């Protein structure tokens, strides 16, 4: 399902629904973080109400909408985005506590976030991603890849190696080359 069928389709033409939902969740996490930093300027009831509303919308998008577009991979996406939400909540909670010095709190939170990303990549990473062939000459192929968190690939067009010619518009599996937290499509492995 393409995002062009939604209300925002005029602005995000050609963007997949999965990419749009992931970007929406990232923007909402940033909003939760900014709200956490503004906690001291808001009344408790206003702050908690805003946190509740943002969190409910966040989990609605995650549980209802992401389930529709991810299918079998929903569990991994849920664990990732729920974990990121927990870190956003921990950020404002520990900031408001006097248990940790400001520097120690930031270092521990950053270390925990990096450890969470490493754990996620270790247990949920994929070595292949689905792609659509744009053009192929038998040795190189230009493919379009949609956003895939599990493979660590951003949406876009990539040039990959190809052993045999592929038809334009064909759906292929493309192997990805991991490098730390980033991966790039490397070669067509299944046609």
TrEMBL record:
Pfam families: DUF2101. The chain crosses the membrane at residues 20-39, 45-64, 76-94, 106-124. InterPro entries: DUF2101_membrane. Keywords: Membrane, Transmembrane, Transmembrane helix. This is DUF2101 family protein.
């Amino acid at each position: 399902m393409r995002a062009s069928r939604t209300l925002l389709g005029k602005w995000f033409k050609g963007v997949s629904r999965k990419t749009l939902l992931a970007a929406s969740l990232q923007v909402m996490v940033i909003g939760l973080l900014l709200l956490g930093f503004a906690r001291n300027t808001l009344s408790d009831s206003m702050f908690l109400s805003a946190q509740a509303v943002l969190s409910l919308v966040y989990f609605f998008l995650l549980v209802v909408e992401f389930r529709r577009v991810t299918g079998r991979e929903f569990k991994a996406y849920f664990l990732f985005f729920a974990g990121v939400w927990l870190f956003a909540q921990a950020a404002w909670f520990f900031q408001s506590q006097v248990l940790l010095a400001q520097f120690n709190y930031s270092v521990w939170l950053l270390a925990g976030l990096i450890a969470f990303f490493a754990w996620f990549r270790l247990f949920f990473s994929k070595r292949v991603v689905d792609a659509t062939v744009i053009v192929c000459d038998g040795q190189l192929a230009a493919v379009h890849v949609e956003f895939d968190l599990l493979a660590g690939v951003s949406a876009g067009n990539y040039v990959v190696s190809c052993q045999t010619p592929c038809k334009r518009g064909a759906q292929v599996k493309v192997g990805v080359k991991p490098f730390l937290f980033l991966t790039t499509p490397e070669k067509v492995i299944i046609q």
